[in-house]
Amino acid sequence: MAITIEQVMEQAQVYADALILVSQPFAPSDAKELAEFQKQVLQEMLVAFEDEAHTAGAQEATLDLAKPLIEWHQYRVGNLDKMIDAPEGTQVCLGVDDANPTILDGERHSVWRLALRLAKQQFEKFPLSIQRTAPTSDEEE
Length: 141
Known about the structure:
This protein is mainly α. 66% of the residues lie in helices and 3% in strands. It contains four helices and two strands, in the order ααββαα. It has helices spanning 5-22, 31-84, 107-123, 137-140; strands spanning 91-92, 102-103. The protein has a two-stranded antiparallel sheet. Helix 2 runs antiparallel to helix 3. The radius of gyration is 32 Å and the shape is rod-shaped.
């Protein structure tokens, strides 16, 4: 169950009320124990709230890292598709200063396409995905 700031504030008020009760002249005999108990509940809520905040921050940081990686990968797979679709007769240069470009004709064109399809098959599915899941019924409460 996620702890909200409102719940923390409500518990802080319960603790404050219990402390006030301790200082009353006709306070119940267990007022001090009740105040200590409410203080402990508040401390536990604060720890849980802080843990949840850190977890949420870590998840957001992971998403911030994952999105550009996924986009980079999709761009590269798109480049493979463009190279696979290169028409016969295309010149392939290895760098800007390539003095001997390879011309994709006949069997070279077929081998080029086959090699790139095999490469794409190896890398097409990115090993990371982002899935947003609905909270379980316990988390919604």
